[in-house]
Structures are given as structure tokens and as C-alpha cells.
Amino acid sequence: MNIINIDEFNKENVFGKGIENTGYSEYFTGDSFLNLLTEPGEDPMLIMNVTFEPGCRNNWHIHHAKKDGGQILLCTAGSGWYQEEGKAAVSLNPGDVIKIPAGVKHWHGAKADSWFSHIAVEVPGEDCSNEWGEPAIDEDYRKLK
């Protein structure tokens, strides 16, 4: 469901928008927000609500791990996109679940005409790390329908 009005979106975004994601802003086109649902280093899994303003998306990136690892996205509010390298983009709506194995290059974010939130679950693994790449190309993004 596309939601452009921020007040309407905030009513749907049950886990809350959180704070501006300034620590990772260099890896995003547009503004994103983080609401940590677990504490890094204290809990065995990192779980956070990530909110994207309309048109915001993260750069291409890969979650690396020697064993297990990866990421799971649980879509909760608004409407967004997910794309793996070499595949067509997938439309995301509340209730959708995306399982991203370690080693898969991908990006995700909001549609141009909607706020979007998902719960990001960092899957525990051995020697996990993230590799950030180039932004998703604006021209390709604008063609998504």
C-alpha cells in the first residue's frame, strides 16, 4: 500500500520511525531512519526497523559470512522495492518476507511515491561483514512500476 502522507504512515508504522540514519547515510540515496529493536553486542541477533522516505534506497551491498549469515526483511508499512543483481526488482508490501542469503548482491528501499518500513534481521553467522557498493542507478530506479 503506497503511503505518501507522513502522518498516515506513522499510524501504520507500528515499530516506529526511530532516529535519522546518519551513521550510514553515505550508503543511501535519500533519508532513512533506524529504530533498534535489539541492542548491538548485548543480544545475539541485531533486529531493527528501517524506514525509508519516498524514493530512498540503499546502495547495492552484500552480507558476507563464512557460514550462515545473511539478512531477513519483514515488510511492515508502506511500499518498497527489493532487487538482487541480475534479477528483476520485486515489489514489497506489508506482510512480505525477503530472505537474503550471505553472498547475494542486492539493494532495497521505498518506492518513489511511498514511505516504507521493514524489520531487518541480521542472521547470525561466522565471520559476518557487510560490503557496500555503488548506488542503484537513478535511471533504472525511475523505470520501476
Written overview of the protein:
With 145 residues, this protein is mainly beta. It has a single domain (6-142), classed as Jelly Rolls, CATH 2.60.120. Helix content is 8%, strand content 43%. The protein is built from two helices and 15 strands. The protein has helices at residues 6-12, 138-142, and strands spanning 19-20, 28-29, 32-36, 46-52, 57-58, 61-64, 67-68, 71-78, 80-84, 90-92, 97-100, 106-110, 116-122, 125-126, 129-132. The strands form five sheets. A six-stranded antiparallel beta sheet has the order 1-3-4-13-8-11, with no helix packed on it. Strands 10-9-12 form a three-stranded antiparallel beta sheet, with no helix packed on it. Strand 9 (80-84) and strand 10 form a beta hairpin. The chain is globular, with a radius of gyration of 14 Å. The two termini are 13 Å apart. The relative contact order is 0.26. The mean pLDDT is 96.
Describe the secondary structure blueprint for this structure.
Blueprint: H1 6-12, E1 19-20, E2 28-29, E3 32-36, E4 46-52, E5 57-58, E6 61-64, E7 67-68, E8 71-78, E9 80-84, E10 90-92, E11 97-100, E12 106-110, E13 116-122, E14 125-126, E15 129-132, H2 138-142
Antiparallel strand pairs: 1-3, 2-5, 3-4, 4-13, 6-15, 7-14, 8-11, 8-13, 9-10, 9-12
Describe the structure using short key phrases.
three-stranded antiparallel beta sheet, six-stranded antiparallel beta sheet, 145 residues, Jelly Rolls, 2 helices, 8% helix, single chain, 15 strands, mainly beta
